[in-house]
Amino acid sequence: xxxxxxxxxxxxxxxxxxxxxxxxxxxxxxxxxxxxxxxxxxxxxxxxxxxxxxxxxxxxxxxxxxxxxxxxxxxxxxxxxxxxxxxxxxxxxxxxxxxxxxxxxxxxxxxxxxxxxxxxxxxxxxxxxxxxxxxxxxxxxxxxxxxxxxxxxxxxxxxxxxxxxxxxxxxxxxxxxxxxxxxxxxxxxxxxxxxxxxxxxxxxxxxxxxxxxxxxxxxxxxxxxxxxxxxxxxxxxxxxxxxxxxxxxxxxxxxxxxxxxxxxxxxxxxxxxxxxxxxxxxxxxxxxxxxxxxxxxxxxxxxxxxxxxxxxxxxxxxxxxxxxxxxxxxxxxxxxxxxxxxxxxxxxxxxxxxxxxxxxxxxxxxxxxxxxxxxxxxxxxxxxxxxxxxxxxxxxxxxxxxxxxxxxxxxxxxxxxxxxxxxxxxxxxxxxxxxxxxxxxxxxxxxxxxxxxxxxxxxxxxxxxxxxxxxxxxxxxxxxxxxxxxxxxxxxxxxxxxxxxxxxxxxxxxxxxxxxxxxxxxxxxxxxxxxxxxxxxxxxxxxxxxxxxxxxxxxxxxxxxxxxx
Amino acid sequence: xxxxxxxxxxxxxxxxxxxxxxxxxxxxxxxxxxxxxxxxxxxxxxxxxxxxxxxxxxxxxxxxxxxxxxxxxxxxxxxxxxxxxxxxxxxxxxxxxxxxxxxxxxxxxxxxxxxxxxxxxxxxxxxxxxxxxxxxxxxxx
Lengths: 565, 141
Hints:
The complex is a heterodimer of chains A (565) and B (141). Chain A is an alpha/beta fold and 565 residues long. Chain A has helices at 7-28, 93-105, 124-128, 151-157, 176-189, 219-236, 247-252, 257-277, 282-285, 299-319, 349-364, 383-398, 413-435, 439-445, 447-464, 493-507, 510-528, 535-545, 550-561, and strands at residues 35-36, 42-43, 83-84, 87-88, 116-121, 166-171, 199-201, 240-241, 243-246, 289-295, 333-337, 368-370. Chain A folds into three domains: 7-59, no CATH class; 83-464, Alpha-Beta Barrel (TIM Barrel), CATH 3.20.20; 505-561, no CATH class. Chain B has a single domain (10-135), classed as Cobalamin-binding domain (Rossmann fold, 3-Layer(aba) Sandwich). In chain B, strand 3 (61-66), helix 3 (71-84) and strand 4 form a beta-alpha-beta unit.
């Protein structure tokens, strides 16, 4: 290992450190001023050059160099600003389109290199792959996201837009495979070439950590479907990001940062091993995997975990999954500020929380950004709140000057040491998962969710006991909460969605739909047997083009790939 | 007069089958357990399943947590199904992301308490215990 300090430099550094210890003792006596961060890592009151020695010199390097601790690109925001992706979704397609147009008019919705970009969230029935006419879901239609169940709904949402230059990110859970298919079918129906269609399907079917709702596929069925989607996209829609490993979701479920980084990387390993076992070249699919990371809980820890995540991903993808391509080693990161830290109490405080979270994400060098709206603990954001979230990003990007230097915290004694400490702690946890038989085994045994729930409860106890401060909740509490305007989605959305669906079913070629669903089942059985990987997604797109609804496709997939409950 | 046996409330906690984010419900479950309750956690179920489990398990209170929509419709469905099963007496408590416009409808469905983010766990546990005691008394009569 190369040394950070020459002997003569080390003497100077050690001399300064011992004088510092003396002056501390003289001024403050026995007090050590130690603290711990969210992950329970002990922090010193100050760091020095010796702390760099925790990290091999070659693990730091320059931005754009393996192991990408300091960033994926030689220069970053000076060349390519982060992509702003406010999460939007409510009502039916025509209603959400109004919010999309507002964002665009305010300077948002900007993709890379001049294109448009939208980050769509679906109502829970859609997100789970359930049609609006399924019993007992009507109260949730269009309530916390947009209701979509046919390719035609997507065609309405993006009417008049060029889907080859519009980046569409879709946040969804168990319904992911079908939602992706509806979108690609809509693109094809509109005459777009799917090899040029770019965007993102979060594909949260991998997520059994407590965030993504109850109904999912069986864990093994989920990982098989993830491989199918990845293989299909690599071939037919190579600009579509086929999965989002959400460190954010794992944190939101209650895990600390070390756990969330470790569980995210363990997910990549499990997915990579699933692909390898099916004969898929990891370099063909991994370049289109990406991360979603949470910011806003512990400023420098958030920066350090990002750097640790990039480093771990590069090393493990190379050494464990056998990746060769640079793009397979580069963890692209979409940031989101922490939703679970938004408070109902004094909601305007959330504007400030979100801005700090966004700043730490930018200092960590993320590639895309969702800054939450300040009123999201109260419901779906108002137009004013969404606009302020966009302004937060614009001020950060265009006023503060933080974008002038790539990896501005690189070389910080504290941040470099913390990066390595998080990397090492995460590696230890990954080793424990390996020892327990791997991630899927740990999901099936319940070990993972127990770890996350225990961490969530510890966090809440700290709030309860005042050891963790939440301004407005357990400190600086006011007697009378301010009156805040909240957004109310149109209660008629359910009726409109049901009417659209009924008309769709009546007008489609039923025989063609039925035949396409039969082909989907056959493809499912083949892929379940480990053959023709990618044919499920291909059949889903075919079924969506033939008029099948999301729920119809989902029930075939559930039959074949099982349910988690 | 001998001291009454300490009450061990039986609490059913659940989320709707089309909801997500179960951090809060799991935290509440652990807090209620630490607060001396027996907790039956049936994550993500349909309203009729919730009512079936509540009756089978002979619980004293039902707690429903929400994050992502359907707050009013799902709660009303549970309350209605309880009534149809002849257990309209079972108190229902709602928590989570409860929007201002949900409150009137939830209250008029007979929900006994509404807890939002930032609520003290102590008060949540106390409310469940009080409602359980009341529920037991009423059934003993």
